[in-house]
Amino acid sequence: MSRHLRVAIVGAGPAGIYAADILTKSDRDVSVDILEADPTPFGLIRYGVAPDHPRIKEIVKALHRVMNQPQIRFFGNVSYGDDLKLDDLRQFYDAVIFATGARRDRDLDIPGIDLAGSYGAADFVAWYDGHPEAPRTWDFQPHAEEIAVVGVGNVGLDVARILAKTADELLVTEIPDNVYDGLKANAAKDIHVFARRGPAQVKFTPMELRELSHSPNIDVVVHPEGFEFDEGSMDALRNSKSQKLTVDVLQNYLAKDETGAAHRIHIHFCNNPVEVLGEDGQVVGLRTEITELDGTGNVRGTGEFKDWPVQAVYRAIGYYSDNLSGLPFDAARGVVPNDGGRVLEIDGSPLPGAYVTGWIKRGPVGLIGHTKSDAAQTISMVLEDADQLAAPESPRPEAVERYLAERGIEFTTWEGWQRLDEHERSLGENHQHTRERVKVVPREDMVRIARVTA
Fold first, then answer.
1. Helix and strand tally (H, E) in the chain?
2. Half-sphere exposure (CA, 13 Å, Cβ side) for 421?
3. How far apart are CA 119 and CA 321, in angstroms?
4. Considering the chain, what percentage of its residues have pLDDT values greater than 70?
């Protein structure tokens, strides 16, 4: 008979929770502890999805059902690398799965990127989603009527849409009070989204693109310059129904006349940002090089440049994962080297008992469906290795709690999170506006509320 297997998952976003779900539904006798640096579960679903996307946040309901399983425990406010390292976890678990995702912005190495008024999209998202460690204010310049967003993924569109909407439009969402107050100071009227390549190479989804026009206060303006297709682009459209739908939506916008709405989102193709222009340390423009498709779907520079008079720049060129203590790291790709989920040492040999799933495994690409299939692949590796992983005597489940308590680490639990969730909802219910929740709780208060005895 196979011995009971104890597994730790580091990261309580969708990747980690899906991995726990698949593992506990397997034939193996297993229990799972999920460790998370935030006091709360759900990762970027909670702190990375725009507040006007409530249907995406419906995913939380499914994740909630997983976390209710008796074989799964949650330890929040526990930071891997600071509170626990890999050698510590090996005392308590047979295997460790890292699902830490990616939360910070990938660098854009061009002159002027560090000027005042140049921002990372991840920082802006954390602010408008009310992350407990995000600043309470955002530096909206009163004169910044024209804004540049660099990058054509869903995050870039989220940033453009939030900048283009009025604060009052977002009152029906769960934005925090401080975000509502901050957005009222946003003077943006024209948001310019720049794509280095053509329409067939954009990374946003057709649904995300359609939602730009749902606001009566926004006109979506697709500019014809660069709206071209080479053979590589046509191949991309033939091979991807989603990509073709996206291009269809872009073509519909291209054919539409402006309505005279107060705000506009402009989408520009074949414009590669090469410099953020500044004056007295402040952003005053963005310089792009005009590119052309080279036949393969990639582009080459033309040597022709254009300056855009914008007063702020948001880079949304992708997320980047943090290097994890005790694990190898591929800095170029921002991932832990692995073979299907098994962590690989520098010499290519497997690191015993260590696995990865989600963005730390494959990079910050793909949607929720990819996360599920990714987790399934990793769990198949864990189960394949299970008999070699299991020590003769199963680690005691209370050992990790004792370890954390002895070191004065105030961890939160699933039961504590449910109390915190009720507290946050009560803030929204008692609020003068109609939004469901007002996330205004600082980290220390989160931990205090979650640790109060029921």
1. 15, 18
2. 14
3. 18
4. 94
